[in-house]
User: Which sequence fits this backbone?
């Protein structure tokens, strides 16, 4: 077997949540939305491109927010991003650094846990 790599991760949202997902992941976080293949577009949801991998936001009829499992997004200018998320009405929670990288958690509009961390260590 060859080397494995993550191509994409998927998080769930409730039916009809696409506009709120676009507002959070696209507008607030600034992720580029990708067009879904036509045969998959009818299923709902939306896809985003945070770096080399993709974030798929999929509709789930029996939706339950992920409170422990989460996506971690690395960014430059993390303090400014945290301020922007808070200004948009989403609470954030600081957590202990990992390998010198500051990090915090927030929830998307559906209650899914999202981790944000510095792209590089700050020597904390």
Assistant:
């Amino acid at each position: 077997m060859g080397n494995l790599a993550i191509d994409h991760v998927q998080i769930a949202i409730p039916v009809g949540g696409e506009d709120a997902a676009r507002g959070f992941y696209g507008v607030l976080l600034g992720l580029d939305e990708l067009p879904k293949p036509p045969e998959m577009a009818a299923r709902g949801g939306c896809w985003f491109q945070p770096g080399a991998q993709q974030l798929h936001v999929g509709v789930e009829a029996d939706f339950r927010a992920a409170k422990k499992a989460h996506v971690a997004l690395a960014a430059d200018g993390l303090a400014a991003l945290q301020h922007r998320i808070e200004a948009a009405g989403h609470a954030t929670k600081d957590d202990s650094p990992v390998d010198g990288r500051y990090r915090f958690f927030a929830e998307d509009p559906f209650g899914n846990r999202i981790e944000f961390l510095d792209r590089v260590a700050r020597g904390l």
